[in-house]
């Protein structure tokens, strides 16, 4: 295995935790199967990887007879074990960058409904303050980190009666910033306009 392929393998998504936040109650979502959650909410997650990175897609549906506001929250950790990491949120491109030596990793999210919020949390801060506090958005804002960090991707939406929404998270890895951004926008445009050629 050459150096580049080894780096790609080491920098893909290692830890993925998913949660549903509804009426200030957190519920764990299993990444491996279809989830039947409380109060008529179903969510299916699917994970796929290729040469430049990984994608995690979801479909969430409200099978109840009332309108619901909810958040699907993903906590992402790269499997890179080196200590030299610089991470930052780029509001211009709506992505999170992680840099390890000369390798870059880009993380982003898209959804058919609602809003997507990207956050960065240093692992040390997460360990001290606890996961629940972070997930309920009761934490400091970190636009930049010079230590090992997790990405948080929040999908916030209003789901009507028997309505569904879809979304995805992308993690692209490579050496060239412009190339990664081109891939990012190509994927984003494909998802935004699936029926147009």
Report on the structure:
It contains four helices and 13 strands. With 197 residues, the chain is of the alpha+beta class. It has one domain: Glycoside hydrolase, family 65, N-terminal domain (Beta-galactosidase, Chain A, domain 5). It has an eight-stranded antiparallel sheet. A five-stranded antiparallel sheet has the order 2-1-6-12-10. The longest helix has 16 residues, at 177-192. It starts with a helix and ends in a 5-residue tail after the last helix. It has helices at residues 3-10, 123-129, 131-135, 177-192; strands spanning 13-22, 25-29, 34-37, 41-50, 53-62, 68-78, 85-90, 95-100, 103-111, 115-122, 144-145, 149-159, 164-174.
Radius of gyration: 17 Å
| Gap between N and C termini | 37 Å
Q: Enumerate the strands of the largest sheet in spatial order, edge to edge or round the barrel.
A: 3-4-5-13-9-8-7-11
User: Going by CATH, what is the homologous superfamily?
Assistant: Glycoside hydrolase, family 65, N-terminal domain
CATH topology: Beta-galactosidase, Chain A, domain 5
Average pLDDT over all residues? 78
Query: What assembly state would you assign to the polypeptide chains in this entry?
Result: single chain
CATH class value = Mainly Beta
Low-confidence stretches are 1-12
Structural class: alpha+beta
- The tally of structural domains comes to 1
Shape: globular
Beta-strand residue percentage: over 45%
Describe how the helices and strands are arranged.
Blueprint lengths: L2 H8 L2 E10 L2 E5 L4 E4 L3 E10 L2 E10 L5 E11 L6 E6 L4 E6 L2 E9 L3 E8 H7 L1 H5 L8 E2 L3 E11 L4 E11 L2 H16 L5
Antiparallel strand pairs: 1-2, 1-6, 3-4, 4-5, 5-13, 6-12, 7-8, 7-11, 8-9, 9-13, 10-12
